[in-house]
Fold this protein.
Amino acid sequence: MINTGTNSSFPDQVVPDEVKQSYDYGLQVARAIEGEWFHGYNSGSRFSVNYNNFHFRRLYARGEQPVQKYKDELSINGDLSYLNLDWKPIPVLSKFVDIVVNGMGSRNYDIKAFSQDPVSRKNRTDYADSILRNIALKDYHKSVKNNLGYDISQVENAETAPQSEEELEVHMQLDYKQAIEIAEEEAINNTLARNKYKLIQHRFNHDLTTIGIGANKTGYNKSEGVTVEYVDPANIVYSYTEDPNFEDIWYVGEIKALTLGEIKKYWPHLLPEELEKIEKYNGNNNYTRGWAGRNEGNTIYVLFFEYKTYSDQVFKIKYTDQGLEKALEKTDMFNPPPSDNFDKVSRSIEVLYSGAKVLGYDQLLDWRLAENMTRPKSNLTKVNMNYNITAPRMYKGRIESIVSKCMGFADMIQITHIKLQQVLSKIVPDGVFLDVDGLAEVDLGNGTNYNPAEALNMYFQTGSVVGRSMTQDGDLNHGKVPIQELSSSNGQAKIQSLISTYQYYLQMIRDVTGLNEARDGSMPNEKSLVGLQKLAAANSNTATRHILDASLYLTLRACENITLRISDCLEFDLTREALINSITAYNVGTLEEMYNLHLYDFGIYLELEPDDEEKALLEQNIQMALQQNQIYLEDAIDVRNVKNLKLANKLLKIKRQEKQKIDQQIAQQQMQAQAQAQAEAAQATALAEAQKQQAIAQTTLQIEQGKSQFDIQLLQQEGQIKMQLAEQKFGYDMQLAQLDSQTRLQVDSEKENRKDNRTKIQASQQSELIDQRKNNLLPKNFEITPETVDQKMEQDASLQPPPENI
């Protein structure tokens, strides 16, 4: 045993490494941890208090809390014989726990690896500088390419590369990825998937909500590679801390219940005699029964712990005759006298020892310097614990959770529920009051007696009551209404009061936790606007944001430890091939980079997907930009895929600016095309006009030539026609002359003939007039009608000889 000389039961740390690695030193550390957490072996120990607190919180979260306190509340001197109630607890808190846990499970995130070693920083800087040079000289590069047809820019796809410093900033955060970063991200995701991390995350999310603390553990073994395990906080022991993230603890461990077979598997060096002693240890079950309530004869409780201390790295710097220096590693006991030939150089680094001890039995199963310690490459003197623990609402070592704040309200809700059962059990139906003396004075007149049974039958069947106002002696009958209805108090006021009390405590739970009705949509107000409902849900998410942050912290620390342990996998052929084969299914090009993974240092961060309210605000901006035709549909798809809301809005701004530039270029091109089209149209119009005038001139000339030829032909035709007309006229004139002479001859002949006829007529009329006068005859009509003329002419013609031919 090492005497530290202080009040602490832990051994002195200012001792050589050889002493720290000894069995006795490890046993004293294990005894100190056991004494600090299990001192007294009773329910008042630190471990049992933590375990019982967490146990009761989990029971309340499941709706399985003990009901004895409710029985004690309602019993009289412990007597419950007059109560026949349902004592089963109402699982009112389980709903709120599920809302928080499932709400965190719906928040997706991406694991991002950022290489921060000098080589990666140089590559990133060179890439950014090349793009900046391309931005500064883009006009010159463009002119050279247009004039010489040769692209002198040193950036691949210069046309699609960022064109401004703002675009470069977004590009470096969203699109730029080195091959080693891609390989690291794939390795982390593969490790988490292989260890079914989603299930582990759901369990410690439930712990953070229920008991206020969550934990996980990363490890490494040659058969499985990097492992991630769930750790029950109720079984954890740790040094005192007030840090919610437990970053200043110097020892941590957990209690595991192992069978003898498992113990033999963990430590095959144990002899059968030692296993028999462990199995037959009488104090084992009594020791563990106080906190776990279990009495399993085949189960041994083992304390696994990690102890952080320091170690001195000592180097002897030897000077050679050639002026060179040679470093030789020495133990921390190396302390030679000063010399001119060499110097002593040392530094202190944190180291981690791992051990295991059977609870209640003074035997150390394991104590060794931890293998494959996870050291941040940015500070190799530090070492990370394999356990990742966080309790976001811890103060002075006391841990608070959502369930712990609501346990009192859950008790009052349960008591109210039981009281409501009491009131309901005491409710009786309405009855009637029968005045027997009043019934005795009633005579129905049919020979039957008006007894109580007959009166009740009549009352319930007809609703009528027969009574007498006067008695048979003529006195006033005080029982003239023999049947009266009794209206019992059905406890409505008590029931409403209990229901109001129930709602009050339920609202108190909502007020304390911040989980309002809008969070789960259980009681949406029909008069509330959708925006107000979303605002209320967003406020509820804000009230439980610390739990989400704690969950992300555990995930981030686990990913950081996985990153530091992946290089360990590459040191062994089996795990190296398994890791590389699993990664190359996604990216074959990372094979060579994986072999050099130990040369890189990574910063791990989680890119959390925005919640519904943030998505709605981003979508509103996208829709507004689309409606105003400020971005393309492809740009909207790219913006929606960005999970960082700040980067998404910045990308949207850049896309809007790019669209404006493109629209301006299109407008300028359209103006140039329009001006060129107008010039070409004017030129084409002038040319068409010239061609038109030339065509008109040619047409006019052809017309004039045609007119001349037509006139000549017309004159020729007229001459021919005139000659023909002259010839015809001469012939016609000859014929007309002949006809004229014949006509004159006929006219003269007719004239003479008519003259002869008139002479004859006149002679005849004279003769008849003479005869009339002589004979005194009646007057005669000498009017000549066409008939008489014709007859006369026929007569004269018959008497005249035919004319001779001329």
Observations:
- The first helix runs from residue 17 to 20.
